[in-house]
């Protein structure tokens, strides 16, 4: 009986050690999975940053040329508007004089399409 009880104790101790080993292995596996997940997340973030930086540089190159073109068009528009305003200022008095002359000088005439009824 003592040998059976000693055998049972040994089996229980062996089962306890096996359970501890299994629990330890599960903990190590969980740690490795967590570490692998963190490493993968860091790689994804690094890749995303690289692609974002590449996109920004391409966008800046494309927009830089368009921005320069836009500035040139805006400058040309400003110069044209200034030219028109200068022309308007120079011709303002002459045009006003012509308009007032046409309105104030009434010359009575028979219209060419008027037919005298007989």
Automatic annotation (TrEMBL):
<keyword id="KW-0472">Membrane</keyword>
<keyword id="KW-0406">Ion transport</keyword>
<dbReference type="GO" id="GO:0016887">
    <property type="term" value="F:ATP hydrolysis activity"/>
</dbReference>
<dbReference type="GO" id="GO:0030672">
    <property type="term" value="C:synaptic vesicle membrane"/>
</dbReference>
<dbReference type="InterPro" id="IPR005124">
    <property type="entry name" value="V-ATPase_G"/>
</dbReference>
<dbReference type="GO" id="GO:0046961">
    <property type="term" value="F:proton-transporting ATPase activity, rotational mechanism"/>
</dbReference>
<comment type="subunit">
    <text>V-ATPase is a heteromultimeric enzyme made up of two complexes: the ATP-hydrolytic V1 complex and the proton translocation V0 complex. The V1 complex consists of three catalytic AB heterodimers that form a heterohexamer, three peripheral stalks each consisting of EG heterodimers, one central rotor including subunits D and F, and the regulatory subunits C and H. The proton translocation complex V0 consists of the proton transport subunit a, a ring of proteolipid subunits c9c'', rotary subunit d, subunits e and f, and the accessory subunits ATP6AP1/Ac45 and ATP6AP2/PRR.</text>
</comment>
<keyword id="KW-0375">Hydrogen ion transport</keyword>
<keyword id="KW-0175">Coiled coil</keyword>
<keyword id="KW-0813">Transport</keyword>
<comment type="similarity">
    <text>Belongs to the V-ATPase G subunit family.</text>
</comment>
<feature type="coiled-coil region">
    <location>
        <begin position="8"/>
        <end position="57"/>
    </location>
</feature>
<comment type="function">
    <text>Subunit of the V1 complex of vacuolar(H+)-ATPase (V-ATPase), a multisubunit enzyme composed of a peripheral complex (V1) that hydrolyzes ATP and a membrane integral complex (V0) that translocates protons. V-ATPase is responsible for acidifying and maintaining the pH of intracellular compartments and in some cell types, is targeted to the plasma membrane, where it is responsible for acidifying the extracellular environment.</text>
</comment>
<feature type="compositionally biased region" description="Polar residues">
    <location>
        <begin position="57"/>
        <end position="69"/>
    </location>
</feature>
<dbReference type="GO" id="GO:0000221">
    <property type="term" value="C:vacuolar proton-transporting V-type ATPase, V1 domain"/>
</dbReference>
<protein>
    <recommendedName>
        <fullName>V-type proton ATPase subunit G</fullName>
    </recommendedName>
</protein>
<dbReference type="Pfam" id="PF03179">
    <property type="entry name" value="V-ATPase_G"/>
</dbReference>
<feature type="region of interest" description="Disordered">
    <location>
        <begin position="57"/>
        <end position="77"/>
    </location>
</feature>
<dbReference type="GO" id="GO:0097401">
    <property type="term" value="P:synaptic vesicle lumen acidification"/>
</dbReference>
């Amino acid at each position: 009986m003592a040998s059976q009880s000693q055998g049972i104790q040994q089996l229980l101790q062996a089962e306890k050690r096996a359970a501890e080993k299994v629990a330890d292995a599960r903990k190590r596996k969980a740690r490795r999975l967590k570490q692998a997940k963190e490493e993968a997340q860091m790689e994804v973030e690094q890749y995303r940053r690289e692609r974002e930086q590449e996109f920004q540089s391409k966008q800046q190159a494309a927009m830089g040329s368009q921005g320069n073109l836009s500035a040139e068009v805006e400058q040309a528009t400003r110069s044209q508007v200034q030219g028109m305003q200068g022309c308007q200022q120079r011709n303002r008095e002459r045009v006003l004089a012509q308009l007032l002359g046409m309105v104030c000088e009434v010359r009575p005439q028979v219209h060419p399409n008027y037919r005298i009824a007989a």
